[in-house]
Design goal:
Helix content is 35%, strand content 25%. The protein is an alpha+beta fold and 93 residues long. It is globular.
Length: 93
């Protein structure tokens, strides 16, 4: 398992059909995983004893970030992307 921030930094390396799950409350430091072999949309998983909740599908995360104006600093950009995806998952998904 990794952090949500690391998943966001490497989002383009994941299968678009994958589902992002993260421990709540969602923050960039939340433990997270991308799962590609779920039967439909499972809202909750337990991995290595950690309860995770569905955040977004990888393809949706990519689409959300495609049209979004990102900061120039690469480190800040990753943190801002993570915050944007969390905001989208909570309020718009």
């Amino acid at each position: 398992m990794t952090t949500l921030l690391e998943i966001v930094r490497n989002l383009d390396t994941f299968d678009p059909s994958g589902m992002i799950y993260a421990a709540t409350p969602w923050t960039e430091k939340s433990q997270a995983i991308v799962v590609t072999d779920t039967d439909g949309r499972t809202m909750r998983l337990t991995v290595e004893g950690v309860a995770l909740e569905y955040l977004l599908a990888v393809f949706i995360a990519v689409e959300v970030l495609e049209d979004w104006q990102m900061p120039a600093d690469p480190e800040f950009a990753a943190e801002a992307k993570c915050a944007r995806l969390i905001q989208y998952a909570i309020y718009d998904a």
